[in-house]
UniProtKB/TrEMBL annotation:
It holds the Pfam family HepT-like. Keywords: Hydrolase, Nuclease, Toxin-antitoxin system. Belongs to the HepT RNase toxin family. This is DUF86 domain-containing protein. It comes from Thioalkalivibrio nitratireducens (strain DSM 14787 / UNIQEM 213 / ALEN2).
Length: 140
């Protein structure tokens, strides 16, 4: 397992979360296109980094082929890396990433605000859980 690669992805997630906490202005999401795009893009980057880290874990542990990005987080929950609730939350984030990347629809500013207000910690929980699992997996 390339732990350095996973650690790099986890560090990037932490950077994105820190930037969202320090720089995002949720009050301006509905009226400032730059604010909205900053939040959307930074969330997209954080979600993609989580997907990349999850994908690497699933591959290295030979857990199978996920049919969707969402399934990566289900597989992590089944491997006891994260709990099921966090897996479901992150699976929904993967869906948000698809909307942001492919422009299927416009993301409601209330949804973005909810993530900023209540779900940035989910990224931190994911990072901590994956980091702890890597430490455990490396034990002799």
């Amino acid at each position: 397992m390339d732990t350095a690669l996973i650690e790099k992805k986890l560090a990037f997630i932490q950077t994105c979360v820190r930037e969202l906490k320090e720089l995002a202005d949720p009050e301006r999401l509905a009226i400032d296109v730059r604010e909205r795009r900053f939040v959307e893009h930074t969330l997209q980057l954080a979600i993609q980094a989580a997907l990349d880290a999850a994908s690497h874990w699933v591959s290295a542990r030979r857990l199978g082929e996920p049919e969707t990005n969402r399934a990566l987080f289900t597989m992590l929950a089944e491997d006891h890396v994260i709990d099921r609730e966090l897996g479901e939350t992150l699976a929904a984030m993967a869906g948000l990433r698809n909307i942001l990347v492919h422009g299927y629809q416009t993301v409601n500013t209330d949804k973005l605000r909810d993530i900023l207000d209540h779900h940035l910690g989910d990224f931190e929980r994911f990072s901590a859980a994956l980091h702890a699992s890597m430490q455990y997996a490396q034990r002799p």
